[in-house]
Amino acid sequence: MSDVELDVVVVGAGFAGLSAARALGRGGKKTIVLEARDRVGGRVYTTKPAEVPWVDLGGQWVGPTQDKILALLREQGARTFKTWTTGQNLLLVSGKKSRYRGTIPRLPIVSLLNVGYAQFLLDRLAKTVPLDAPWKAARAKEWDARTFDDWLRVHVRTDTARHLLDAALETVFAAPAREMSLLHVLFYIHSGKNLGMLLGTDGAAQAERVQGGMQPVAEKLAEGIDVRLSSPVRRIEDEGDHCRVSFDGGELTTRHVIVAAPPKLVSEIEFSPLLPEARRRLVTKMPMGAVIKHTAIYDRPFWRDDGLSGMVVSDEGPIHVAFDNSPPNVAGGGPPCGMLMGFCESDAARAMGKLDADGRKKAALSNLARFYGPRAHDVIGYHDHVWENDPWSGGCYGAFMPPGIWTELGPSLRKPCGRVHWAGTETATVWSGYIDGALSSGERAAAEVLVGCPSIVTR
Ligand SMILES: Cc1cc2nc3c(=O)[nH]c(=O)nc-3n(C[C@H](O)[C@H](O)[C@H](O)COP(=O)(O)OP(=O)(O)OC[C@H]3O[C@@H](n4cnc5c(N)ncnc54)[C@H](O)[C@@H]3O)c2cc1C
């Protein structure tokens, strides 16, 4: 042990890895973070093109009860601003376009009641799923044997209600209902409190954004942490009393490793000895969702002149949900430019991801023109990112559990394997899949090391 260089090597400099490293540093542990990309932030990715102050191509919103990220923003003195919701929202369902204010769209009464009933039922069932052990829910086996699609088919009886729910829920899960376990959906809803919280803007998950973008928050968090960029980890050997971590460019010896990468990418790291069978299988059976976040930039937010908020829910696609994502107003006037952001998700994102950049731009702008009129073609800039094709994410927003996985393999999600510990938003209990969950997962993994590490215990 005498020539072991480090207390901890953290794999991945997303919010999970960085929060683990910060907690370890505060606990006096000598830590290095190895990051595959040439930047920190992972699924949070901010670009600064010439025509606008910033564009968030990945995670951007924060909302109430996301206590970890809200505390970090306060600590950093970051400025946040409310998501623009002033004006009428658009709804395109079953070929009809309508406008509405607030949260309740104009639908035939039967469909409206059906949507409300489905939401009520999902929230009620979700509350019974234990966040730290979904497999212990009283009806875990039954719910994990079913797909979410199967549940929707039984409980959502009108086409309009189903189309609306599919469009809205895709924004939350980025995966088709036919691929997800009902138990997973219920866990995820409970993890973010309830469906209204996951879907909403004011007072909910999409409430606020960070001025300047979210990646600078990760960059600030990384200050003072020894992060080695462009250092993908290829192999982790647990030698019993220490670990050897091999990455492009070198090798480190360390007492502990915290792996803070998405499950799919964990499956690409070679472990010696092999990880326990359940952990090994788990990471190969947690697929990622698929998302493309399209950002169209205009000289001004022209849709506001027409009384529109910019918010759209549509069952047509490829973009199913859109927002006014303009920067905040400048002193004494409106925003310096107008930005519309549309999410293309799940099957539509998988198809759109096959197009080249020009094809994606054309498809996205045509779709926005269907929402906001031909003026939507007159962009001064356009940006997107195909997360599914990004080798260091492999999809987004996060991984999900198909039927059978929570109950069979769930107990191995956070269980350390020898000296190797697990972080990442997918391992979080609260706000799993979100930046907030990433932060808490990193702190939890760091606490495991700090409490379990003999040097700390004897200190
Ligand atoms: C389009 C989009 C929109 C989103 N919107 C929101 C939102 O508005 N609000 C919100 O809260 N969340 C949002 N999310 C989700 C949020 O971004 C993620 O939950 C969160 O960033 C995950 O953090 P993480 O640290 O767990 O994982 P990651 O950010 O994925 O970090 C893992 C890191 O590990 C690195 N890595 C992987 N393999 C290796 C290896 N072998 N060696 C070294 N490094 C490796 C990766 O490069 C990456 O940097 C969004 C995500 C996307 C893609």
CATH homologous superfamily assignment of the largest domain: FAD/NAD(P)-binding domain
CATH class of the largest domain: Alpha Beta
Mean pLDDT: 95
State the distance separating the first and last CA atoms.
18 Å
- The tally of structural domains comes to 3
Work out the helicity level: 25-40%
Count the helices. How many?
16
- Biggest beta sheet attributes: 8 strands, mixed
CATH topology of the largest domain: FAD/NAD(P)-binding domain
Assigned CATH architecture of the largest domain: 3-Layer(bba) Sandwich
Which ligands are bound? Answer: flavin-adenine dinucleotide
> Structural class, from helix and strand content?
alpha/beta
What is the number of E strands?
19
The rough form would be described as globular
- Specify Rg, calculated over alpha carbons: 22 Å
Uncertain segments are: 454-459
Strand content: 15-25%
In short:
The chain is an alpha/beta fold and 459 residues long. Helix content is 33%, strand content 20%.
Could you characterize the architecture of this molecule?
This protein has about 450 residues and is of the alpha/beta class. It has three domains: about 5-40 and about 215-285 and about 400-455, 3-Layer(bba) Sandwich (FAD/NAD(P)-binding domain); about 50-65 and about 80-85 and about 205-210 and about 290-390, Polyamine Oxidase, Chain A, domain 2; about 110-190, Guanine Nucleotide Dissociation Inhibitor, domain 1 (Orthogonal Bundle), CATH 1.10.405. It contains 16 helices and 19 strands. It has helices at about 15-25, 65-75, 110-125, 140-145, 150-155, 160-175, 180-190, 195-200, 215-220, 265, 275-285, 345-350, 355-370, 405-410, 435-450, 455; strands at about 5-10, 30-35, 45, 55, 80, 90-95, 95-100, 210, 225-230, 235-240, 245, 250-260, 270, 290-300, 310-315, 320-325, 340-345, 380-385, 420. Helix 2 (about 65-75) crosses helix 15 (about 435-450). About 55% of the residues are buried. Flavin-adenine dinucleotide binds near residues 34, 35 and 291.
